[in-house]
Write a structure and sequence with these properties.
The complex is a heterodimer of chains A (406) and B (333).
Chain A: E1 7-11, E2 23-29, E3 32-39, H1 47-51, H2 56-64, H3 73-86, H4 92-120, H5 124-145, E4 154-155, E5 158-159, H6 165-190, H7 193-199, H8 207-212, H9 217-221, H10 229-232, H11 259-282, H12 295-304, E6 306-315, E7 318-327, E8 334-338, H13 340-344, H14 348-352, H15 360-366, H16 371-374, H17 390-405
Helix pairs in contact in A: 2-3, 3-12, 4-5, 4-11, 4-15, 5-6, 6-11
Chain B: H1 2-36, H2 46-56, H3 67-86, H4 103-123, H5 127-160, H6 169-174, H7 177-180, H8 183-203, H9 215-218, H10 228-253, H11 259-262, H12 266-295, H13 301-329
Helix pairs in contact in B: 1-3, 1-10, 1-12, 2-10, 3-4, 3-10, 4-5, 4-10, 5-8, 5-13, 8-10, 8-12, 8-13, 10-12
The chains are: A alpha+beta (406), B mainly alpha (333).
């Protein structure tokens, strides 16, 4: 092959393997990757800044638009943070509706990811199949919320819509379709010879590294980390459910932490989500779904509140965190979004090292990156790039705090 | 003078037929793949529309490229693919340059379009194209082994049956290798048929052997920097090459004609054989390209080499042993 000189291959910001812009630079020797680095910040849209001049009820709609797939993740995390500050208690039924919609989101997100993964492997037939069966979940979501993509169902203090009794039948039919499909999905994704040969042993993430880099969600669980917010710090209706974090052992195999394990975890999480929705439907408590119907009253409660809180939610990709601080005003004084990909993307340089060039797309995709959830900063200083040290950054943040206090 | 004129005329006609059939084949391929994936798929004339549009668009030469090599290679690829067709008999029509070339020449000519792609890839000065070109070279080395095995053993079996000039296509038109082989030989030939089915997607860089072009890895690989007229010429070359490689397989392993069945002679027989020939080409292309690329994922380049050398190489050697045993049993040697 072409000499022993390492050369650089840029993947992105725009590349067919990437569904969203991110820049990954690979140092390659022949077909082997010897070094990798990535630069996020290519899809920054200033959503946090927009939020700081809006009231919490308006921001909930804004959070829905942070990501096109995590339609409920960000609004749920944000609403939970605001509810903690304002001391709002969500009615039980509201919690159940939130759980159901969050789990439907997990189903459609994992199926979307499975399709993308198949496409990265060059297996387009499977990609079309996965996306076709995903439509059932999308239809169910539309049936419940009225929207396919930006669900807009979360409200501060509950949900904006209830799931009525006559809707149960249709939701159950959708769940049954997935139950019947599950063994087929398992066979297609986990038993295919080419997928096995391409995914087993590639993109290895050890338990220690996953812990050290604080990987979250299916990425960490595939490495044997038993971390699942729904189990560790139950919220919404998860406390009433008997669930365990899904590990690769669910498929009766050892934990390797490779790409294949990440497929296993996601496929089995689909099954888990189906069960969760079924249990929730069976045990739906009666009552309202919203703490207060009148938006004016919600806003008044928010305006009276002061303090700070962190809202967390186990998104399909891992834990998402919203930090909100309010100080007796219409708009929050601080709002920080940390999506799961922010934690997971940092393992890219590690799992890409030593990989074959052919496996880059599937390894990059295996953490299920979502850049528009992640990008909170873009450097637009006349095209020049600066790298700040930790000391400089702390100094800058002190200065900013001082400016805000003035 | 007449011979030269008819050769030139024949070449032009053949080029048009080759391009038309090739684009039609890729249209069928795209349509059937779409149907198998539960999509509707493009109309059959889509490849024609694509090429027509590409030929009218601007051809961009990257700053890092070597312009003359970069622009020459698409023409070289198309010319060599058409040249392959001139040595191949279509049905009961003798090849235009029939006496001048044999199977070995066609084997070499089939390498030239890939080689042109490789040189064009290196000349475009893009890291994606460079990696793609390296992979194309490796996969060429990979699939040439089973391909050469199958061609040589078929010619050897014909020679063992005392057929004169076994590498010539004129001989192949008259003598089918299935007629000279005994039961063991038939098994060997079936293995070769299987082998040829798997070599075709490799030759054409189709899934699962499409790592040189791998869309999600290399953004088109070799062709990453090609655009406009140059890309159009490469797609034409690819279409003609598809006809060439499949026709080559059909000629050596599925040589039967329809006209003897109907007892026809003359122009009618030529037409019916030609039609039947293209039907065979379409069926083989559906089985060995379309179906395979629908049901599989892309292999790594290292896996491509392993599969071609060890799995298909092994099958090739098994076929050699069977055909040799057959020749001894039939008392040919």
């Amino acid at each position: 092959m072409a000499g022993n000189v390492p050369y650089k291959i840029p993947i992105g910001p725009i590349h067919p393997a990437l569904k969203e812009p991110v820049h990954i630079e690979l140092t390659v020797m022949g077909e082997e990757v010897i070094g990798a680095d990535f630069t996020p910040g290519q899809t920054h849209r200033g959503i946090e800044w927009m939020g700081l001049s809006r009231n919490p009820v308006q921001i909930v709609h804004l959070t829905d638009r942070i990501c096109g797939i995590c339609g409920v993740t960000h609004s749920l995390s944000f609403a939970r943070a605001v509810e903690q500050i304002a001391g709002i208690t969500v009615p039980e039924r509201g919690d159940y509706v939130r759980t159901i919609i969050a789990e439907f989101e997990r189903i459609q997100s994992h199926l979307l990811w499975a399709g993308v993964a198949a496409h990265e492997l060059g297996f387009d037939s499977l990609f079309y199949l996965a996306w076709r069966v995903r439509e059932d979940a999308m239809d169910a979501i539309e049936f419940i919320t009225g929207n396919r993509v930006n669900y807009d169902i979360i409200q501060i203090g509950g949900t904006r819509r209830d799931i009525t009794i006559d809707q149960y039948a249709k939701i159950r039919t959708c769940l049954k379709t997935y139950k019947d499909l599950f063994s087929k999905l398992k066979k297609l994704f986990l038993e295919d010879a080419v997928i096995k040969s391409r995914c087993i042993g590639t993109g290895l993430l050890s338990f220690e590294t996953a812990m050290a880099y604080s990987a979250v969600g299916p990425t960490s669980r595939a490495s044997g980390v038993t971390a699942d917010l729904r189990v560790d710090y139950p919220y919404c209706a998860y406390g009433d459910l008997d669930i365990k974090p899904v590990l690769p052992t669910a498929y009766g195999k050892d934990v390797n932490g490779d790409t294949y394990d990440r497929i296993v975890v996601r496929i089995f999480e689909i099954a888990q989500s189906i069960e969760i929705i079924e249990t929730c439907l069976d045990n739906m408590p009666a009552g309202p779904v919203l703490w207060e119907e009148k938006v004016v009253k919600i806003l008044a409660a928010c305006k009276k509140a002061s303090g700070e809180a962190v809202g967390r939610h186990e998104a399909p990709r891992g834990e998402a965190v919203h930090y909100v601080a309010m100080d007796n005003a219409d708009a929050p004084i601080a709002w920080k979004v940390k999506a799961s990909t922010y934690s997971n993307a940092h393992v890219w340089p590690i799992i890409l090292k030593g990989a074959q060039l052919a496996d880059i797309p599937i390894i990059v995709a295996s953490i299920d990156p979502c850049m528009s959830c992640t990008d909170r900063v873009a450097i637009t200083d006349n095209g020049s790039t600066k790298i700040f040290t930790k000391e400089q950054l702390s100094k800058m943040s002190y200065e900013k705090t001082r400016r805000m206090l003035q | 003078m007449n011979i030269i004129l008819s050769a030139i005329g024949g070449t032009i006609v053949l080029a048009i037929i080759g391009i038309a059939v090739g684009l039609f084949l890729s249209g069928i391929d795209r349509r059937i793949v779409a149907r198998m994936q539960a999509r509707i798929g493009p109309p059959l004339r889509q490849p024609f529309t694509d090429v027509k549009k590409l030929l009218t668009k601007q051809s961009i030469v990257p700053a890092n490229a070597i312009p003359w090599l970069f622009n020459l290679m698409p023409i070289a690829a198309l010319a060599s693919s058409i040249a392959v067709l001139m040595y191949l008999p279509f049905g009961s029509l003798a090849p235009i340059l029939g006496e001048a070339g044999d199977m070995i020449l066609v084997l070499y000519l089939l390498i030239v379009p890939s080689l042109a792609l490789v040189i064009g890839g290196f000349a475009s000065g893009s890291p994606y194209a460079t990696v793609g070109a390296q992979r194309e070279m490796v996969s060429m080395i990979a699939y040439e082994l089973p391909l050469a095995i199958s061609v040589v053993i078929i010619a050897w079996r014909l020679m063992a049956a005392n057929v004169a000039d076994p590498f010539s296509f004129m001989t192949l038109m008259e003598t089918s290798v299935w007629d000279v082989a005994g039961p063991l030989g038939i098994v060997g030939l079936l293995l070769l048929l299987f082998l040829f089915m798997w070599i075709t997607p490799g030759e054409l860089s189709k899934v699962p052997f499409d790592s040189p072009e791998a869309e999600t890895e290399l953004a088109g690989g070799i062709l990453a920097e090609y655009s406009g007229r140059n890309l159009g010429l490469f797609s034409l070359a690819q279409a003609v090459k598809m006809v060439g490689i499949i026709a080559f397989g059909v000629i050596i392993l599925l040589p039967w004609n329809l006209s003897p069945v109907f007892g026809m002679t003359g122009a009618g027989a030529a037409v019916i054989d030609l039609v039947f020939f293209f039907v065979k080409v379409i069926v083989v292309s559906i089985l060995s390209v379309t179906v395979v690329r629908t049901m599989m994922a892309r292999l790594r380049i290292t896996q491509v080499v392993k599969v071609y050398w060890f799995v298909f190489g092994g099958i090739g050697i098994a076929a050699i042993i069977l055909l040799m045993l057959d020749a001894f049993l039939m008392g040919g040697v």
